[in-house]
C-alpha cells in the first residue's frame, strides 16, 4: 500500500504506541524501536479519563480496551480518618463521562489492547532496539548495533529518562524528584466477605480517595479480583532514590498512615497483599520539544513527565498522539512536516504545561494538614464538588484540536500571510 510519510518512533510505552496508532490509522507508515526485548508495562492499575478514552475511540481500539476495563459507577472523597466528604466525584458524573467513559484497567491489559491495534495497522515494532544517536537533519537514528534507519520524521517517546531529550538539548537532562514516594499495595479481594470493613470497596467498581497530611490514597478494583491501593506521600528530599517499583514492607506503609481510616489497615491485613514503593519524578519543562530541522519532536513523558496526582500522565501522551493524528490526517506534504510539528507544539505545549501546574495544585490540595485550608477544602467538597477543572480536562478532543489548528495554519499561510507581532492573522482580517 502506498503510504504518506514514514515515521520512526523511539520507545514503545503508552505514548509511542498511541502515536503509532494515531498516525498509522491515517495512512502513514510507522516503525517503533523499543530498547527492551519484551513489552511490559510497569505497575498495576491505571485510570484513563475521557480525554484519553475519546482518543482510543478515534483509533478504533476502545472496544478492545473495554473488554478488560471497568467503568467506575461511583466514587468517594474521604478525609484520612474515613469521614465521607463527597459521594459525587467527577469519575461518576454522567455529564462528564457520558460521551467517552472514565475507565480503570490493568496496565498489561491496556498494552495488550493497544498492541491489537498495531497488528491491524501493520505497525512494525522492533524489540531489543536501543536507539543511541539521532541525526536530526536527515532525519535518521542509529541503534546500539550501528544499524541506521532513515525516515521523514522521528518521534522521541522514550519516557521521563529520555535519551532523545538529552540529544535534543545537547546535554543530559535527568528527571528530578520533588520528594514524593509512591507506595502501591495490591490486595486480592476473593476473601473479603460482607462482614469485612472493606466490603464496600469490593462490591462495586468505584474510585476512592482519602486525603491526609502529606499525601493521599486512591483505590480502585482492577480485573475484578484485585484492589489497587496507591499512596502518594511527600517524604522530603533526603530519602534514598528508587528507580521503579521495589518490594516494600507492609509495616512501613502502615507507619505512614498510622492514624488513617481503619479500612486501609484492614486492607493491609488481607492475606496475599503485596507492597511496592518507588520515587516519583518529574522533568524540567523543556523550552522546545522540536528540533529546528523540523523533523523531530518529543512526546509523552519525554516531553512532559508529571506527578500522578491528577491521573493525567498517559492521558497527556494520548492527547499528543491525538493532535498528531489530527494534523497528519489532513494533507501534509513531506516539505510541510516542519510546519506540522510546529503547529503540534503550539497546540500541545501550553496545555501540557497547564496540566502540570494543575497537577501540582491538586497534589497540595490532597495533602493539606488539619487546619483552616483543609476545613475550607472539606466544606467545598461537602457542598457538592466543583467540576470545572474536570470539564476543562476531560471534554477536550485532541484530534479535533489538531485538525482545527492545521486547517487554520494552512488557511492563514495559503496567501503568504505572515504572523504579525507573533499573532497569526486570519485571512479575513488581513484582507481588511
Ligand atoms: C504511580 C503512577 C501512577 C500513574 N497513574 C496514572 C493514571 O492513573 N493515569 C494516567 O493517565 N497516567 C498515570 N501515570 C502516568 C503514566 O504512567 C505515564 O505518563 C506513561 O506511562 C508514560 O508513557 P511513555 O510512553 O511516555 O513513557 P514510558 O512508559 O517510560 O515508555 C518509554 C519507552 O521507551 C523505551 N526506551 C527508553 N529509552 C529507549 C531507547 N534509547 N531506545 C528505544 N527505546 C527506549 C522504554 O523501554 C519504554 O518502553 C502514572 C504514573 C505513576 C508513576
Automatic annotation (TrEMBL):
Q: Which InterPro entries match?
A: FAD-bd, FAD-dep_Monooxygenase_BioMet, FAD/NAD-bd_sf
Residues annotated as signal peptide: 1-20
**One protein family per Pfam:** FAD_binding_3
Describe the location of the FAD-binding domain by residue ranges. 4-356
Q: Which UniProt keywords apply?
A: FAD, Flavoprotein, Monooxygenase, Oxidoreductase, Signal
TM ranges are none
Supply the PANTHER family for this chain.
Answer: MONOOXYGENASE (PTHR13789), PUTATIVE (AFU_ORTHOLOGUE AFUA_2G01680)-RELATED (PTHR13789:SF238)
Q: Which family does it belong to?
A: Belongs to the paxM FAD-dependent monooxygenase family.
Protein name from the UniProt record: FAD-binding domain-containing protein
Q: What is the lineage of its organism?
A: Eukaryota, Fungi, Dikarya, Ascomycota, Pezizomycotina
